[in-house]
Amino acid sequence: MKKLVCAGEILVEIMAERIGQSFLAPGPLIGPFPSGAPAIFIDQAARLGQPAGLIAAVGDDDFGHLNIERLRADGADISAIKVHRGAATGTAFVTYETDGSRHFVYNIKQSAAGLIEIGVEARALLAGADHFHVMGTSLFSPEVIEVARIGIETVKARGGTVSFDPNIRKEMLDLPGLRDALHFVLSKTDVFLPSGPELFIFAGATDEESAVREMLDRGISAVVIKKGAQGAVHYDKTGRTASPGFVVDEIDPTGAGDCFAAAFVSFWLRGEVPEKALRIANGCGALAVTRKGPMEGIASLAAVEAFLATARTGTP
Ligand code: ADP
Prior knowledge:
This protein is an alpha/beta fold. It has a single domain (4-310), classed as UDP-N-acetylmuramoyl-L-alanine:D-glutamate ligase (3-Layer(aba) Sandwich). It is 35% helix and 22% strand. The protein contains 10 helices and 13 strands. The strands form 2 sheets. A 9-stranded mixed β-sheet has the order 5-4-1-8-9-10-11-12-13, with helices on both faces. β4 (52-59), α2 (62-73) and β5 form a beta-alpha-beta unit. α4 (142-157) packs parallel to α5 (178-188) and α9 packs across α10. The longest helix has 16 residues, at 142-157. The model has no long low-confidence stretch (mean pLDDT 95). The structure holds adenosine-5'-diphosphate.
């Protein structure tokens, strides 16, 4: 089976217990939960039985070891996760506002995550990789951009493929080097996985079909647009396939997009038709939102199949 690799931040998430709870005053917290978009992605792929490894850096502390142990237990290749003495694992504190939006306090850039590099172990992992996945949120410094560039070029030189989930807000585009990096990544992308409006950050057109056409004309093989509870839509040169989301109680949306992307890419790498890859991906995304904590809703293939056997779809 093809092996996929991702590089980027590992962190823990600590959550305010009550909706609307402010961080301007002390209050009850829950966690730590393992997190970091690349870690979520790799963990979900591994749980689906896909060979998957992560290039990352953590501190030699409980938060770092919590993440490494979760990834190891779930079957991910952790050989290229470096443990740094004297640096702390990153944190994200999150509180949910009453309107459903989230407010984060992050410490990522200054954490061990910023020490990521391509060392001997990362080179060995990339030497056996067939696919590299890039996340826009992971491109937060020139150093991590360089790691992504090496990952992409190494895998492409082996005849492998690249997927890209921009996961980006317009305000982030002013970070040094980010705009150029995004355009470089897009120029190497085979599977592009934007969430709804993110498509228009990269396209000149203002309607979905024309914007997708621009992406396909650049040589991207598949464009998969994530649409939250509505599911997802897939486009390639042969046409459009819409697949509805599944009805669940949303408890915590963090991580759904990464679980969806991991599942879609895993089944795309297995050569499955878009209908099947989308159905499994929508199942993983739906299960992801049913638990507090970004990785707590990650399901094994058997658990997703059991869910899909009885799940009800919403409207696409
Ligand atoms: P992102 O987190 O990247 O913004 P989305 O919010 O679109 O991505 O979620 C990714 C996928 O997770 C969706 O395409 C869908 O399959 C699933 N999903 C997300 N939210 C829900 C929900 N409330 N109910 C069911 N499925 C959901």
